[in-house]
Fold this sequence. Notes:
Layout: H1 5-25, H2 31-39, H3 44-51, H4 53-61, H5 73-89, H6 94-103, H7 107-129
Helix pairs in contact: 2-3, 6-7
Amino acid sequence: MSAYLPSLLGGMLIGASAVMLLLLNGRIAGISGIVGRLAQGIGLTTNLAFVLGPLAYLLVFGGWPVVQITAGWPLLIVAGLLVGFGSRMGSGCTSGHGVLGIARLSIRSMVAVATFLTAGAVAVAILRGGGL
């Protein structure tokens, strides 16, 4: 159980922050929208609180979590661009559709999440089949 505790607590914090943003500001906690509004200078305080969350992690735990990325830069860049394109095309990202959209029983969000998951599974199958 203790191996899953950080993930459980992280999920609870994401859910709590999403609910607070919705109740207090009437905004959906979609990271692509938050970063987009931040880039436009809209709602700086609220949006900065979401974006600077990792700094709170650093202060609390005294270091960054260990992350091992085995893919090369070209693949990471293409993947990032595809995620950005998809979130614009889908009018939101996995956090907005997945966390609050499904909780609000939004059909559009359910279709979007199903599409995200299917595309991810297909991409993994193609990359593993291609030896990447």
